[in-house]
Write a structure and sequence with these properties.
273 residues, alpha/beta, Rossmann fold, 34% helix, 22% strand, binds S-adenosylmethionine
Length: 273
């Protein structure tokens, strides 16, 4: 599945008649440039076939759902609660150790996904900082934007951090070249790699069905090093080696003992003042 808007998407509602949902679905369809299709009691598979579409964005009361007729994804923040609570207890988090963010910094998350690490970044940089998250799949960008705005978490600092993430529908390969050097302090990448981590099938799996599966673009990481004021981090499975051109300029690789995940850290080349 491509993440560049070529996937054919329809927007519809749940089976229950709901005028507010129909109005919201019409708005989202306009935003996505996708057709709004009245549900009229029809099953999703049949609706997809009738409109020769791959994915339906279903607007239900209180939530948005992506469906291909078999796999469904509605927004959830993945490990945000567990990791966020640990961070609030001052326990270590590998992303925090790798990124070393401080209050007031700006962070660009090139691969937003669930917005979990973007929200953790928003927690780190606080109200005076700024976090922008890029998502290349347009329907997923809408689902994540609305989820980050509305998903209920009892832990107030985490809920507030989610709300501070600015979601942008963009492909990092086209977004980064438009940025001036110094536009962000930290730039992060976490694309899908071929393998799923053990135990993540039911959480990451549905996101992966609708997300952009293209591999990490090394040229974009090198470009990010020219843009960030401080650091670039790339998350990857710990047994996967990054392309040689990245390894050649990597500052360090960090992983937890016996951990499945690693962060490759790239400190930016020093700039002339
Ligand atoms: C593994 S998930 C990221 C999870 C995220 N780090 C989190 O904490 O929730 C990868 C996400 O990046 C998106 N993505 C992949 N390639 C992209 C690109 N070139 N530009 C923008 N988003 C991209 C995918 O659609 C997917 O939603």
């Amino acid at each position: 599945m491509e993440g560049d808007g070529i996937i054919s998407t329809i927007v519809t509602t749940g089976l229950a008649k709901n005028e507010a949902a129909s109005a919201r679905a019409t708005e989202i369809a306009t935003e996505l440039g996708a057709p709004f299709v009245p549900r009229d009691g029809t099953g999703i598979l049949r609706l997809l076939r009738r409109h020769e579409a791959d994915v339906a964005l279903i607007v239900q009361a209180g939530r948005l759902l992506l469906s291909d007729g078999t796999v469904e994804y509605s927004y959830h923040p993945n490990m945000l609660l567990v990791r966020g609570l640990n961070i609030l207890r001052n326990w270590r988090d590998l992303f925090f150790d790798a990124a070393e963010m401080s209050e007031g910094e700006s962070v660009l998350d090139c691969t937003l996904g669930f917005g979990c690490e973007a929200s953790l970044a928003a927690l780190a940089v606080g109200e005076t900082g700024r976090v922008v998250g890029l998502e290349s799949n347009p329907a997923l960008a809408v689902v994540t934007r609305e989820g980050l705005r509305e998903f209920h978490l009892d832990t107030k600092p985490l809920a507030a951090a989610m709300r501070r993430v600015a979601v942008v529908h963009a492909d990092y390969q086209t977004y980064l070249p438009g940025l001036a050097p110094g536009a962000f302090d930290l730039i992060a990448f976490d694309p899908f790699f071929d393998e799923r981590l053990e135990g993540s099938e039911h959480t990451v799996g549905p996101l992966a069905r609708f997300g952009d599966q293209r591999p990490l673009d090394p040229a974009s990481v090198l470009l990010a090093r020219q843009i960030a004021t401080r650091r670039v981090v790339v998350k990857h499975p710990s047994h996967v080696e990054l392309p040689a051109e990245l390894v050649a300029v990597r500052t360090k690789e960090m992983s937890a003992r016996k951990g499945q995940t690693a962060y490759s850290v790239f400190d930016v080349p020093s700039r002339e003042p």
